[in-house]
Predict the structure of Transcriptional regulator WhiB.
Amino acid sequence: MPFPIKITPPPYVPSTDEARLPCTDAPDLFFPPDRPERQKEQLERVAAAKALCFRCPVRTACGDWARDHQEWGIWGGHTEEEHGYRPTTARLKTRSTDHTKAAA
């Protein structure tokens, strides 16, 4: 049984601002599911995640942090491909054991 994804904001986000982050309301949008995903489903999920990102007060810092740390998923309104890198297989495998990483 897959573990639910929990959003843990990057360290630059003050704990007093965590409740204002739109990603905390729908963390599953920011990462692909643990099952095959149809293209239409993926496009809808990514669009919904990006829409939440564009309302976020820390969107730019979030995207910069994710790019610098080569995080996978949607961060700052961009996918890892849009940030200009592809996560390694080793990094993707951590998803199955570490569900505390998240998108903001």
